[in-house]
Amino acid sequence: MSVASDSDGRPVVLVVEDEESYQDALNVGLTVEGFIVVSASTLAQARELLASTKPDLILLDVMLPDGSGIDFCREVANSVRTPVIMVSARTSEVDIVLGLEIGAADYVTKPYRLRELIARMRAVLRRPASPTDEEVITFGPMRMDFDRRSLTRNGVDIDLSRKEFDLLALFATRLGQVVTREVCLDTLWWGLQLSDTRTLDTHVKRLRQKIELDPADPIHLVTIRGVGFRLDA
After folding, report:
1. Which percentage of the chain shows pLDDT scores above 70?
2. Among 33, 80, 44, 37, which Cα is nearest to 59's?
C-alpha cells in the first residue's frame, strides 16, 4: 500500500489492483501523465486509503483477494461522490452492465491501452459534479437537494439509487431543456453505444415510477421522441 503526500492540485487516483504488474505499470504511467497515485492490493487497504486520501478518482479491479470490487463500488456509490472506473478481466456484457448499474462511471476491460484508459479517466474527471454543494432545485412538488443528495415530494423522502439521482440531476440542472440520449450516455454511461439504450430507458422508467403520479402518462419527465428527455416543472 502506498500513500501520496500533498497533491499540489494534481488529481489523486486510488488504484485498487492486486496484480503487481498492472499496479506497477499504472503507478509509473499515471505519474508520468501528471496524476498522483495511491495504490492498494486489497479492499481493506482501499477502504483505509479512501478515508485518508479522499481521491478524485478510483480505478478498481473486480476480483480482489479479500472480496469483490463490485461490493466496494457499491459502498462508494452509496457513501461518497468519488467516481469509480472498473478495470477488469471480466468482459461479458452482463459484468459490464452490472458495474455501470451499481454506480461505476466507466468500465474498462483488460488488457487495455494505457492512453485509452487515461483518456477515459480524464473524461470522467471533466464531468460536472452537482451544480453547487448548496443548490436546491424544485419542480412540481419535488425538491432536489444537491448537498444532501436527496429528493422529497411535499417533504417526504423519495429513495433514489446513486445513478437515479445523477440522472435526475442531469435533467434538473437543464430544467425545461431537452437532454439528448447521447448526452445521457456520455455523461453517466460513458462507453455504452447509442444503439444500446436499455440501461438508460430502465433508469428513466424507474424515475417515473418514483416521481410521477401516473408513470404511464408523465407530466414532469417527458420523452421527446427520437431525441431524448425533458424535465418540466
Report:
1. 90
2. 37
